[in-house]
Fold each of these.
Amino acid sequence: MRILHLSDLHRAGATETLKAIWNGPQAALRKLPEAEQRFDLIVVSGDLAGAARPAEYDELHEFAVTSLLPLLREPDARARVVFVPGNHDVDWSAELGRPLQISDLLQRPGGSEQLAALLRRYRDDPARSGVRQVISKYGHIEWIALDEARQADRFAGVQRFLDSFYGDTLREPGRRFDLAAAQEGLDWSAHVFPADRVAVYGFNSCFLNDRHWTGAAISRESIANAAAHAAEFADGFLRVAVWHHGIHTDGYRPDYLNQADLGALIVAGFQVGFHGHMHKAGAQQLGWLTDRFVLVGTGSLGANQNHRPDAIGKQFSVVQIHPHQVHVQVFERTGDVPVYTRRPPRTLPLGNQGEREQHEIAAGEHTRKIHVDRHGIITVSVRISELRTPVAIPVAELSPPVCEARHESPVGSPGFEIRQSTGQDGVIRFTLYPPDHRSTDLVWRYQASNAVPLTQAEVPRYNLAGRRDLDGARTSVVVRSHTVRFPCRHLTLSYSFDDPVVAMDSVEKWALRCVTHNGDTHWERVDSEERRCELVKRSPTEISLAIEAPIVGHRYAIAYRPSLPGHALDYTGNRIAARLLDRCIADRELGAMLSYQLAETIAAAISAVFGGSPTGISWMGLLWDDAQGRLLPAFGNFASREWVCSYPCGTGVAGHAFRFNRPAAWCRGTEHSRDALVYQRSPAYQHWKPEHDWIVCVPLVGDDHKNPLGVVQFEGGGKQHGLGDRLREFANAALAQAATKGSSWEVFQQTLSSTVNTGFWHACALADCLVDFRDDIHRLMTQLELGGQSSEASLTDGSMIRL
């Protein structure tokens, strides 16, 4: 809700008009972007006139109609202008009662006791004692006995104005002020807006005020009645209170409200308060309160310099209230220059004491531009303006199956350091360490691989532990989210892609909060927050989401379905992979023999084609386990400790080759290139480190559409000869983009892929555990032209075995 806050309209002199006073603020508002020149609510927190004269209220009525109402988004909604009385709206010319003759009182029977009781009441509570002490111009002390029937005359002028301005627009659940009531507790107003889930209540902080007692107080009866009204008509709404007098901790300042007055409002459920009177702006979340309350005061719009302390200029404020945040922008005119300038804005959290401690961190505009290239590598450009934090804060988190990430140093923020770490849960975290409490405009960039599924086939492989559809299948929706770790005024998430991978009719905006039910933690969507989000679908390659004042701890996301089908292995291919894994890994008796036979058959094929055995090379055959969502080792020539290695889809060089169904390579010495991001580093808790300098991975074709069912990974280190040297050269050529169409390296890549797949499927055709799939395997080999249907294979030693 966007609010214009004005206060203390009383003019500097008899010749100055509200129209003339308004020229400066009006010019300042017109300089704002057009969308910011309209308001949901206008609050005028007291001192509507200078001396409560009828002519002043007539002028105010015209000013409100011609100048204030047009500023509303709904110009005819008078209930969206909230007026409350101030001390200048108390008519000091009103008769209060009769002079109290002390001499006559003492002459009556019991008069001395009555006088003593009167003085005692005055000493204990002068405002409610029923008498007023007056010091005459000659220095004499005089007393006035108040007449309860005349007290309403003090507010006759302002009550007439309120009745005239609102008319019948404040119908139930709204309510007009009743300042003339003899009964205490009726001097409050109600402005309820169900669509906004906001209720604004006006209070009279001058209900005991007169020309002889200028103290401030809000009737506890009025607060209680307003709270009862809110419970009936505004249950669950944000409650906003508006009154005139400022707050002061000194109990000997009767012209200010004290902590007890404010505490009564907080107990009644109010979370935001607007006031004036102090002639200078101030916004704070009071540290001595544990409940939610933000106090917003603004300076005088019309008071002369004698009334404005500390040479404070004329002021008005623009306030934005969000579910967990209040943003205050003060406009001030200094000296004789009729130009209003902006003060630095303030952002205050709506939260309890613990939340306030978290909100010592603050930021202005928070923008994240995420670009996803066709290789699945994301580049995230982060820009956070006016960032202020006294402690280290997380600025990015990447969860598995993200493979690797790297970042650059912040630009233009000397002393600010970002450190990268990886936890045992596999989450990559970037943490900002500030040198001190100073503000900075953070500009920073990082990259990561395997962060975003690009096709329909990849989505369930990324969401193994995520949401499921009603039929129990893993969801096909991609959810790209950002968890808000610190408050900011505005958050923008922009996503762009090299290729049109987004089905535009499926794009949605999501807002989620973390909830715990029966000990289980999960994320649920929040409709009210989603309504605040703005989703922009520019093209199939560019979408964005924006929200003002996002809630700390919530996730804001763009959800969509990919438009491309991707590489989804058919049922038969999945069953073959599952059968091989079950036999190679789980069967203690025959598993080792099957792994050996698969490895030897592929090695024999490579030896026959390339004229050299791969026995001196470490290589591994990995098959896709759809249940676990990982590539698992099944056969090959590798150290026994590497049986624990596994790769989620897209993770590591092997996972990258499987994901994109094309050969992939890596070489040591390319760590600073983008391609190095596909390499999976060993976790910190792994006691051994791999001893390779290069890796080449070739997909294993698994069905008629050439979708992969696994990968064969070759790796080596140091100086090698024969095939090992050739593979190392190919890895370097691939990273140098030399394996282009028509090149010798493309021929080598195709030959290697064909040879590996021929050896694999020949072994499968002869495996007893796959006898049920033999016809399918022979058909696939014929379709893919992988050689004849032999029942024997030559091993590397030249002997023949039957599989």
Amino acid sequence: MSEHPPWPRRLRDSVVIAVAYFGLGLLTLHFFAGHGTFPVPVWLPAAAAIVAVMLRGGAAVPAIALGTFLFNRLVLDAPLAICLALACGNSMAPYLGWRAMRRLDPSPYIFARRRTVAAFALGGVGLHGLLASLVGATAVTAGQGVDAWLHTLLSWWLCDTAGALIAAPALLALLQPEPGGIRHWQGFVRERPVAALALLSLAAFFFLVLPGRDGTLVGLPFLLTFPALWLAWRHPPRFVQPLLALTCAIALAGALAHRGVFYFGPASLPLETTALMAISLIFVALVVGAMATERQRAAMALREANRNLVARVEMQSRKLQTSEQVFETVVQTSPDAILVTNLEGTISFASPQANLLFGLSPDVLLEGLTFCQFLTTDTRALWANQLSELIAGRTPPPLELTAVAPQRADFSIEANGRLLRDGQGQPRGAVVVVRDVEDRRRLQRELQDNEQRFRMLAETAPFALVFARAENGEIIFANREAQRLLGVDVPAGTAFTPEFYADPEERSEIIAQLMQKGALDNREIRLKDRHGRTFWAIFSAVLSSYSDGPALLISINDITARKALELTLRRQLEEIRALQATLQDQALRDGLTGLFNRRYLDETLERELARAARERTPVSVIMLDMDHFKRLNDRYGHKAGDTVLQRLAEILRDACRASDVACRYGGEEFALILPGATLPTALERAEAIRRQVAELALPPSPSQGTADNAIRCTVSLGVATYPEHGGNGETLIQQADRALYAAKGAGRNRAVGAPPLSLPSPAAHPALPLLD
């Protein structure tokens, strides 16, 4: 009922409930009205109403009201007011009865126990029928007197009760799923057909075959109670309740047909007798079935408890055996001696290690001796106090004592005792674990000696040593050099915190690396002392442990002086490198024009030719020479000549691609290397350079004239291409140089390619006036 199904399902359920109520009303009316017995003694729609409410809760109330209203209005043609009153009473009565039933017992399964059956009988059947009859009798007999109202009330209550009790358990048994773990019915499945056939045969014999005579056999059908109880005790409600409902249907059919033992004349009231018999039969079967369920559940609970008890006993037995085995194993394999003594200290059990500990042969029995016999006189009182502490209920720590042995000098042992108690919790002895700690004492002394030596070495070390906790930096130890370097006083509780780092975040990085790798070697960092002085140090650390947490062993070596020297050397090295770069650049470039020199030209040309041979691509070379450069120098001076060469170098740089190389070949002669350029392309590039130079006009110096007397110049260019004109750099330069001389001989101010290709004579570009 706590679930809320989706509205299509709720709508479907409402329609089914309304149709079921209406249909059962028609069936009941038709079944009984045909024999003149209306009002009916059994009203089956009451069963549909209580079942619907039990399965769907309050959501079934509107559907029941609709079914009631339609039945009374359409079938019985009752007045509207009566139809509304009956719809209200017949829908709210089962709901209120169901609520009362849930208040008495919240279990939704009515067959689970006797309390649930009683709640169903009182609330779902009795209160439901009483409320519905009260509303119906009041609405129908209004104005007819108390007798008519009381008669109608009782008649309707009987028919509602009989209908609900006969049909509702069967419907619930078929529609309501059985909870898991209630019964196991498989053992009686085979007898069900025989039992059902026998019960139905007896019912048919009593109610359809035997005559009623004068009423002497009227009690005979109540014998059906015995097989019904037998079935209810052994079989589930899903089988028993539909079978009993069918038996009651046979009885009603016999009563309607005026047959069977309940009919023995017109005054015999067979229907009323049948209804009472059905009520008693169904109710008793419900009670007996609930008793059987309770008994079986109790039996199952008892069996489960018995299984649990047996399992616990077996588990405890196994634990006891395991404990004994563990104790035996511990006693036999423990390197420590184990003794069991009484409260006076007398030994009642001793492990084999006790004989070895005290230097006794294995065949010597220690039982009956006292533990104090193996102790020196001055330590026996200590053990007696320890035993008194145990008896008083306290748990003293292990005690170091001095033991004696026949063939061994006195040695140190550690005795740890625990009290033994009996079943009533009273002390009855003690278990003593004795351990030889002579070696441990010796190791402790050696450790103390080693610690002293380490402190001496650390204090005299020429570098700083710090031992600090990793989590908070608390300094545990710092040698004198560390205290001087950091300006700390260790007894004052100084912590090696981020304030000692020039970069505080570097501490977190160092801690993370140590936690991951466990060590840090020779890291150069900048630290600060307590007074704020910053210094360079070589920082090394190893992850260790101290007490209950990780710790760091740190060595710090001040390298401030070395870092200053390194900085000076680094600056000098940078200056040397800059000077080398300058010298190298001067070795490869012309000082006046900034272009590469002839040496770089030779190296680059051979490299480009080798690449062109691999990639099978062309390489062109342009040789360029100023026309009448000597006359220009003579007329305008060498300074003007240098200016012209510099402007020519700028033109060449602007004309070069990223892969091209422009060089000053010597004097006023220049060369260009054009990787990937064919001869026609190189000639076009050369012609473009020639035009730019021809268009160049440089102003003379003030002493040499006005702006109209501008310095103008021309160039002649020769072009050669690999592989047409040569397979190496020297040949290619020679061919370009010959083409250059050919341009000179043809009148200058032109670009000529090495034979056989050349551009036409630049007729459209007349030669500029030559300088005298």
Amino acid sequence: MSQVTVKTYYSAAELAAMRLPMLPTSKGKVLAKAEREAWPSTEVTGIGGKRREYAPPAPVMVAIKEFVVKRLLTGGMHESEAVIEGAHCQNPRAHAAQGIHGENGKRALSHAEIGTGTEDGRQSGWHVSSLPGNSQPAQSVQHGITPASPGRVHGAAEPVKTSIGQARVPAAALTDRQRQIAEARAALLREVERIAQVVGREKAITKVVIMAQDGTLPEHLARLVPVANARSGTDGKRTLTRRTLYRWFNAYRPGDVRAVNALAPKDQQTAVRIPAWAPDLLAYFQVPQNVSLAWAVEQIAGKHGIDQDKLYHRARRFLDKMGNVERHAGRMGAREIKNIKPFVRRDSGMLWPGEVYTADGHSFDAEVAHPAHGKPFRPEITTVIDVGTRRAVGWSVDLAESGLAVLDALRHACEVGGIPTTFYVDNGSGYKNALMSAPGVGMESRLRFTMTHSIAYNSQARGVIERAHQTMWVRAAKELPTYIGAPMDAQAKQKIHKLTRRDIALAGRSKYLMPFNAFVAFCESKVDAYNNRPHRSLPMMFDPALGKKRHMSPNEAWAQGVKDGAQLAVVTQEEARELFRPQREAKVLRGEIRLFNNLYFAHELTEYHGDVVRVAYDIHNGDMVWVYDQQGRFICEAGFEANKRAYFPESYLDRNERKRIEGQLQRIDRKREDVVLAAQRGEKYIKALEDNPSPTLELMGALTAIEEVVPAEPIIPASNGRPIFMLESDRYEWLMQHRDAWTDGDRQFLTQFVSGDIYEGLRERFEALGLAWSGFDGNVLKVAV
């Protein structure tokens, strides 16, 4: 039958930590109770100085004993986490040798001392940490094992070498196997020390060795012998030797705070010895091309004179011992490797609704119909998210990312949720521009918010908006047949691409492309669905409909914040029209203001000649502008003047659209020049391209039908008034400009040409020139003469 004994004196902190029913749970109240009831006490000298320990009354001692037994039975403390101790030894010097007292009689620590009986009636003591609140596993107090930061051994401090070459390392740096072996060895050494108190260490070692060989050791110690030996084999022939025990004693120092750790064997997995070939291996392996290990080994095997197969397995074991992040250094760039490094989670729970907005643009991952010509394109969606509630307060859809798209999304956000205190965005051109941040005229200074930019190439810092893009827009794109994201099947993606282009060529539109107006309504429905869907980053609430708790939705979190007292600076549509008109500075000259090559005039500007004023304009209407002085006072409305470059006023958007079309025409002209130049170089050049395929081979291969190519010359009219065409595209352009001159031969030519690759390559040019193919309807055919 096991017998449990506990010590007599305890400190107030120990008693409070046990949380016994009849005692207070704070140190101060335990002290007050002990003084009030005059508990017997003694003064103990410890590491931090002197302290007073108390002997609780009998009822409390019974509760302490029950507490310790319960911890043992429930696994709160385990025998493998303790070291055998001579708890009933009456010799103080022996106590000091066993580590219960220090050199000057100082008690190491005050923990529960538990004695258990063995089969032969001898008492063995277990000295364990039994107090609640200990964050570290139960350790043997006399060995003073202190916790250390967990982690790989690569970054651990330099271990202290013992006389036999063992390393004393923090307990947390040991593996489970090392810890079990060290504790088993310490338990056997404690048994030797217990016997040595009577017969001396030499005879005690001899006795323990003989008992181990004869199998007469107590059962609990006999089970520890194979564990302490740390050798393979299960035949039971491996026992203890004098040399082994002396080696353990030589490494073991009871007064050392890391004594047990010194008994642990070396961990072969973490005891890394850098081989001579390792630097060369890493030089080939840690490169951004992400080469295979087999290739890297192949490059260095000959240099080091090692068989390639053997070196591969050595290299694999060497890399397995490296840290998971360290192994990818060089194979991942500075931005990519951030995805596997530790990060900081930002807490947005203290933010009020409307306090911090974050915004970003997203290229939609599906094609829709362009609002101008109906061709497939990917719209740009700008979304504004309230960080505190995750609500999408504003959004806009545009043809491409621009400052105007951001401005429209911000206008929508301010109308719905109010003007933010902070606007957190990236470093894109849509945010770092004069429209947003110019002093006096930028949105930041006019709306009185603070715009903060994240670190470049650090999208992890804006996880709120990036996650919203995945939830709203990536999911939405997958609902459309024209989805072109990476998860889309390559064959299906190619098929839908060809179908939409064929439909556009034949009918000018495709049933697979969502019209732009329908797409805008589609986006609005997705934003509404997102705002009403429970968000797992928001607090929990009880849902009566479900009968259980769930996370709040962004709309519910916003409404709760407003109910709790959030102050929103919401603007009306009338105010928004004035607030969100872009402004630029311009100089007044004789009552005129020049803006985007347009001249605006007002008599009220006469006295402002030579002054720089602020001019607000409407991006959709160029008929007038609104003029303010540098202090923001309104001066007048200036109307479009007749002495400007264009006869009719050109709005800001019209000007941008004209510039875009001019750029498209220039690119088409360059493409046409490339095609003509390739044709003039002859069939040999084209054949060389066919032998060496390139991205333009398909277009260039169509020109092989030209039997003979001659240098470009002026087009010579034929006898019937038709020019002599050197290229099929020239003939097509002339026919589209002279529809009344078509013949049956022209009809056959046009049918073949518009279905060929040359027409497809020059389609944008023909559309810009108004010569796009529209069919034969309404055309007069003539018979060739």
